[in-house]
Design goal:
Strand order of the largest sheet: 4-5-6-10-9-8-7
Helix content: 25-40%
Strand content: 25-35%
Order of helices and strands: HEHHEEHEHEEHEEEEHHHEEEEE
Shape: elongated
Radius of gyration: 21 Å
Largest sheet: 7 strands, mixed
Amino acid sequence: MPLKERVLAVLEENKGKSVSGSEIAKSVGMTRSAVWKAVKLLREEGYSICAVTNRGYCLSEENDFLSEQAIVPNLRTKEIGRKIDVFKTIDSTNSFAKSLAQLGAAHGTTVISEVQTQGKGRMGRQFYSPLGMGIYMSVIVRPKLSVEQSLLITSCAAVAVADAIEKVAGIDCKIKWVNDIYAGNKKLCGILTEASVDVEQGGLEYAIVGIGLNVQNINFPKNIADIATSIKLETDRNVSRSVLAAEILNCLEERFSNITDKAFIDDYRSRSNIIGKRIDVSQGDRISTVTCIGIDECGRLLVRLDNGEEKALSSGTVRLSGEGVQQ
């Protein structure tokens, strides 16, 4: 690990507390002069680090930059997030994670960026991913699932993300089938899963779980301003993105550890914001207005048509009748 990152790790570990230059130097195995240069580089990157004579360096608790040094100390996982790449900017975390997966990256490998220039949403839409405002993260998972069971990945991930947001921010999160997290009647987070099939084995080779979560946003583009929200808007307080990102990874590992048992399905149902409501279902060019009557053990959406016929849907885009277009 480069010196700058090692110094940052020490400062993150003692965030809000002063650490002497000599103590940092001893910890990272370098001179005090080298530590001073590393601190200078971190300040140039935007970190607020104060220096007090006879007390040392102190990383302000107001810093909210995403970094491996800030995320890893908050992990309780064995695999997920233990290999992590953090970028200042990237086109799409899902696209980069996919390239890593194709090269054999291990289960749990995680890609995070401060900003995405081409963040992916469903149906080819672009996910709004401004600098420093959210958590844009993709996780490579290699579950032993059949192609038919692949819907469980997104459903399970949605419950895990909702768990994490509730633990860290105290927001009562609901889930709109299959991939959106809501706070009240507005979208807080979107999840996009992209999978690769092992043709010879007849199962999944890997899946990329992409998570786009609005954290600090207070303004949104006009096309989504009426339907999007953020943790900041919902709570009127600042939440550490690094702590929240780590908790999402913790909850993902916990939930994925028994995904085939489908233990999460009851929680998925209890968090649903569409069961019992009229919804519009888009499948290709066809849009049908139906009544949602439940979610089955495979994560499929159970609906009742106006003629009384009942169906189980494993694909499609859903929105509450009268709701705007999502990002």
